[in-house]
Design brief:
Layout (H helix, E strand, L loop, with lengths): L1 E5 L4 H5 L2 H10 L4 E6 L4 H5 L6 E4 L6 H10 L4 E4 L4 H9 L4 E5 L10 E3 L10 H12 L17 H12 L5 E5 L12 H14 L3 E6 L4 H10 L6 E4 L4 H8 L4 E5 L2 H8 L4 E6 L6 H4 L8 E6 L3 H18 L1
Parallel strand pairs: 1-2, 1-4, 2-3, 4-5, 5-6, 7-8, 7-10, 8-9, 10-11, 11-12
Helix pairs in contact: 2-6, 4-5, 7-10, 8-13
């Protein structure tokens, strides 16, 4: 059976779709798993051995061009984890016989099977809601999946080269202060700098600060603050897959709830993550696909006094971890 899984939004959102792809492949290895993703997520999708084909939805192309790609893949059934009118119409035009999606927005009229989930109630995490849609296709499917969900053969080599280049001789604790606008709560840059100083004071782990390819100004600001203090700075310009391979070797990855947090969890790296103090943006909704035992969540309060108290708690936690 050719099964299309659609998730055409950001990095973290796409990672919440990967457990669904995995269990569909586990259910019957003969299932051909095809994903429809944005250009941002193409390389990561191609790195997953449980995904057989990748269709890229380039928003600059027409919906008819997308439907042509889908029709060429000879899809038997589609599961759209997060829908919009564009992908819904493309599947309709591609004449996919069975089209499953959450019953939300006007786009639902283009699907043959519409599922009421009410995700806003946050009765489970985003990736768990995604998994539930697989049960519409296979009611007896086992939704359990092994962790880490993604492994690479050459991570040790990449990490050793990174350590040699940066004179790293100890385990690494990483701080990722940026978030690309995809998070509803975070510490300020100067607060991150204070957290890094806490880690440096312990003198037990090597501290690395990581940055996205479009965060040069943030990189420069932090680099200036820590010049000569032994912090390693890494800006990810070799792509998301290379970054995933590198951080899979880190002892701890500290960030807000953004795509890089989900990426770290995908490859089994322990995480310390900061969330907004709201149900919609909470850890309850956006907990990662990793083992819960290696996840540490903080909900940053709106109240300034409580926020300051939590910041001190985080500092103590970082000192205790390392």
């Amino acid at each position: 059976m050719n099964i299309l899984v659609v998730r055409t939004d950001k990095l973290g959102d796409f990672i919440t779709a990967l457990p669904t792809c995995k269990v569909l492949k586990n259910y019957d290895p003969k299932n051909r798993i095809v994903v429809c993703v944005t250009p941002l997520n193409e390389s990561l999708a191609r790195a997953c051995d449980f995904i057989d084909e990748v269709i890229v939805d380039d928003k600059n192309s027409s919906v008819y061009e997308l439907s042509h790609k889908l029709r060429a893949a000879k899809i038997d059934v589609s599961i759209t984890l997060f829908s919009n009118t564009r992908v819904a119409l493309a599947q309709f035009l591609a004449r996919i016989p069975k089209r499953i999606a959450p019953a939300t927005k006007i786009a639902q009229i283009f699907y043959t099977h519409r599922v009421k989930q009410r995700r806003s109630e946050v009765k489970m995490a985003e990736f768990e809601y995604n998994l539930q849609l697989a049960k519409i296709l296979f009611p007896d499917i086992d939704l359990a999946f092994s962790r880490p969900l993604l492994k690479f053969d050459d991570t040790k080599k990449i990490y050793e080269e990174f350590c040699t280049t940066n004179a790293i001789t100890n385990s690494v604790i990483a701080f990722h202060p940026g978030f690309g606008g995809s998070s509803d709560a975070n510490w300020s840059v100067d607060e991150y700098i204070e957290l890094v100083q806490t880690a440096l004071a312990a003198k037990k782990c090597q501290v690395v600060m990581t940055f996205g390819p479009d965060e040069q100004k943030l990189y420069d600001y932090c680099h200036e603050r820590f010049d000569g203090q032994g912090v390693v700075f890494y800006i990810s310009k070799e792509g998301v897959v290379n970054f995933a391979k590198l951080i899979s070797n880190f002892k701890l990855f500290i960030s807000t709830s953004t795509g890089t947090y989900h990426l770290a969890a995908l490859v089994g790296t322990p995480t310390m993550t900061f969330f907004a103090d709201s149900l919609f943006a909470s850890a309850a909704r956006w907990k990662s696909v990793s083992d819960v035992k290696i996840q540490k969540h903080y909900m940053i309060p709106h109240d300034e006094i409580k926020r300051a108290q939590m910041f001190e708690d985080v500092k103590r936690e970082i000192a205790g971890v390392i």
